[in-house]
């Protein structure tokens, strides 16, 4: 079928949408691919829907190739299964909840582990049925706190989610590997530059987990890598390389000093260097104690103290990931009033431990390290308070920021950071969900076995934005061949009747050999048409223009910007070669 611009439901815009900050958002709206309906809720117009379908096709082909079987579960789900796994509560405000006319609770599915486990339980009951991998291409709903950048972070979005069911851990490892490989092929075909990072497991519970991050300055995920070893990890997943504990014997005794006006690390370090302690003090020699309150799902708020070296800040995302699924909140002034033992600016380990506040420290705070830290009285600090001698924390926590230059956890060299957008996630769930629903099948020896699960997601609609983000220039989009809405954008830039007919004939010929053509047959100036073709971003633009009377058409490559004249009689063959190449 040939698509005509004169009929296409498309209006391109000259100006960027007011709410758009990132290039893909601006361009996808300006080029008429998507339209905003509500925050994080978008309509797909013809061009956008074509790209979305192409991404789906590639994802589907790679899923089918590893033996995945496509099904489609409802997006509208009853509360019950999510109550069983406690995710009705754990998901918090992120869940769209609704009621039917009888007052029954429902939700719009944010992800479907529960339903897949129940579906397999309903159909399969023998070890002979396994392994099995099921997937769906489905609209998901999450009431994101900050919907962002158009379809990049929507509240309604398309995800490919798959779930593997195996009887053994080795089987699960194999299914995981198959998905990981399939994702690599997928993203390569889609023309996405990406890295694979080890990830925290998040609210799902379970073990091995990796994320695929598209490299992008506008990404919300920060990851670090070590050039020397190839180690790469989400910042949330970085485990601090802790020093070895050192002997405590012979360390100087802890002493309380008057340190008036030193509630900040800066002031404290200045004091310490004036106090003549016999060594140069930096923020890294101080231990600052931060108090937050946390609440386990369905529980009460409780205090938590976190001790980290004073030269570092708490990284909220790392803190939250470490405490998940508990909620974290900052302490308010009225909270401080409730706990008079908290001397703001001078909080030390002693008062925390004496008052049964759970106290977790940075992994660098190993036994034998000596710290300058609060003495729990305004204007006083300890010097040489030694971990393992003067205080024993309740454990460690990964909450401090990771910095460029920090040692890689594998000890191979320094870490450098970069930003990315999560496009896929592979995850060995284990038996969390099969346990929750008692999914048992008859084993070979007649005894019941419980399958183990993997769950794997790809952000299908997000990928449209990610590809746009990685493939554009200041004039517009530049789609990779695999996902372009059309193979060829044929622009008629000549009012002459013969040229117009020649273009129509060429379009028919291209169509006959299976090349998808968008023909700009509008009554508009060549300038307007060229601008639109650059904005829309079909990789191959063929112009039937002034040269037509000399027997030539122009073939432009939207990627390289190169253009060449081609004799009309070989145009078909040349275009075919360019499209297939
Ligand atoms: P993020 O950290 O970006 O919120 P997530 O870890 O919550 O993502 P998963 O639950 O692993 O996401 O979902 C699988 C995939 O679905 C993600 O890798 C991502 O590509 C996509 N995805 C998740 N949330 C959104 C969203 N709000 N809009 C578009 N795509 C999304
Ligand atoms: Mg994820």
Automatic annotation (TrEMBL):
Listed under catalytic activity are:
tRNA(Pro) + L-proline + ATP = L-prolyl-tRNA(Pro) + AMP + diphosphate
Q: Which CDD domains does the UniProt record give? A: ProRS_anticodon_short (cd00861)
Q: Which family does it belong to?
A: Belongs to the class-II aminoacyl-tRNA synthetase family. ProS type 1 subfamily.
InterPro entries linked: aa-tRNA-synt_IIb (IPR002314), aa-tRNA-synth_II (IPR006195), aa-tRNA-synth_II/BPL/LPL (IPR045864), Anticodon-bd (IPR004154), Anticodon-bd_dom_sf (IPR036621), Pro-tRNA-ligase_IIa (IPR002316), Pro-tRNA-synth_IIa_bac-type (IPR004500), Pro-tRNA-Synthase_IIa_type1 (IPR023717)
Q: Name one Pfam family in it.
A: tRNA-synt_2b
Please state what class of enzyme this protein is: ligase
Q: Which UniProt keywords are given for this protein, alphabetically ordered?
A: Aminoacyl-tRNA synthetase, ATP-binding, Cytoplasm, Ligase, Nucleotide-binding, Protein biosynthesis
The domain comment in this protein's record states: Consists of three domains: the N-terminal catalytic domain, the editing domain and the C-terminal anticodon-binding domain.
Q: Aminoacyl-transfer RNA synthetases class-II family profile domain: which residues? A: 35-480
Q: What is this protein called?
A: Proline--tRNA ligase
Which GO BP terms, alphabetically?
A: prolyl-tRNA aminoacylation
Which segments cross the bilayer?
A: none
| Subcellular location(s) of the protein | Cytoplasm
User: Can you quote a single GO CC term?
Assistant: cytosol
> Its domain of life?
Bacteria
